[in-house]
Design a protein that fits this description.
alpha/beta; two-stranded antiparallel ribbon; 8 strands; about 45% helix
């Protein structure tokens, strides 16, 4: 018995224990990358707003593992940013000319996002202007406002990823104290996707249905009722905007509309990326 206890004590002595200190904790390699990119953007006054896990935590308190840093910016600012980072030694690539570029260092990266992958919603100057001040990894920066964060998630409804819970958490955590006019404006002609997300919120939090103002419920439901009472036989199929894989059969075999390709082609024509010094994974939309 004594030998057993003594062995445990010896093991404990060899284990490094935390020591109190006023020093800041050392950043890991990924965090150093995020910090360096944020510092460069701030130093060169590139208009941007942080989204992803950092923004979600700021608005809702919901934490999740951070696998990258998401930065929202206009397509014009994205081109400037890639040029800047390339000159600083980062490896940059355009993953999808419609909406996504990356900057790499070692095994870590930062995402630069100019809109949704289906091109139904794009980042404009107003998104950046409405961003709110925040501090990330010790760097004063800005994060997306809750309204833009919510809007950025209404089309993230694929089989492999679904952000409906994030939208519900945004509404719940803010108590519905949101600029609902702005949210309706951002959803635009895709208001049914917003209604779908809000119905999920209502289902999950029935006692907090009033967090969504009655006027918003009324407006959305009245729009739906009008569409149901006045069907449009020429209305186009929109499944590819939701999930191009799950609705592939509709387009490829049943001959229904491919709005995804139309939206993406239209968006691609409006974007100019940096030249040959930036690697391009996809040269066409």
């Amino acid at each position: 018995m004594w030998r057993h206890i003594q062995f445990g004590a010896m093991s404990a002595e060899k284990t490094a224990l935390p020591v109190s200190s006023s020093a800041e904790p050392e950043l890991c390699a990924a965090q150093r990358l995020y910090r360096d990119v944020l510092l460069l953007l701030e130093e060169h006054r590139v208009p941007h707003a942080v989204s992803g896990a950092f923004a979600l935590r700021e608005h809702t308190g919901v934490g999740r593992p951070v696998k990258d840093l998401d930065i929202f910016l206009t397509s014009e600012a994205a081109g400037v940013t890639l040029d800047l980072l390339r000159k600083q030694g980062f490896e940059c690539e355009i993953c999808d000319p419609v909406w996504l570029a990356k900057a790499h260092r070692d095994d870590f990266f930062v995402d630069f996002i100019t809109g949704m992958s289906n091109a139904a919603i794009t980042v404009t100057d107003s998104w950046i202007a409405r961003a709110r001040p925040a501090e990330i990894l010790g760097v004063p920066t800005r994060i997306l406002a809750a309204e833009e964060l919510l809007a950025s998630k209404i089309f993230v409804v694929r089989r492999e990823r679904f952000d409906g819970a994030d939208i519900a958490h945004i509404v719940y955590a803010t108590g519905g104290r949101l600029d609902w006019g702005r949210i309706l404006e951002l959803a635009g002609s895709h208001w049914e996707m917003l209604l779908w997300a809000l119905l999920l919120f209502r289902y999950v939090y029935p006692a907090q249905s009033h967090y969504v103002p009655l006027l918003v419920w009324t407006q959305l439901v009245n729009r739906l009722m009008f569409k149901l009472l006045n069907p449009d036989p020429s209305a186009r199929f929109r499944g590819s905007l939701v999930d191009e894989n799950m609705f592939a059969i509709d387009v490829n075999e049943w001959g229904l509309d491919d709005l995804l390709s139309e939206y993406r082609a239209s968006r691609a024509r409006k974007i100019e990326w940096p030249g040959d010094d930036v690697q391009s994974r996809r040269n066409a939309a």
